[in-house]
Input
Amino acid sequence: MPSLLPPATSTAALGDRPIVAYKLLYFGGLCLGYGGLTWLSLQRGLRRWRSQVAGLIFVTAAHFITDLASRGDLGELIALSSVPFLLAAIHAVRTSP
Output
């Protein structure tokens, strides 16, 4: 059974507007995927606009857009978005002095 705590909490914080809450959760998923892959690109040595390209390609990929637009699968979108962020965090911990 999926957890309804994040949508319910954000709905209460937004004054009982569930559509806005879900849109913000989708936007958060996009930011998580974009930020995670951009962070990983910066760790691997890419600078300036080149580090942004990987994140941009990731969030505009066919599977990502399909989860977002046609299926509306928030859980899978968040799970898919978490992978680059998790990899970047692991890389940051392993390479820190």
Notes: The helical segments are 5-13, 18-43, 49-59, 62-71, 74-95. The longest helix spans residues 18-43. The two ends are 41 Å apart (CA to CA). The mean pLDDT is 81.
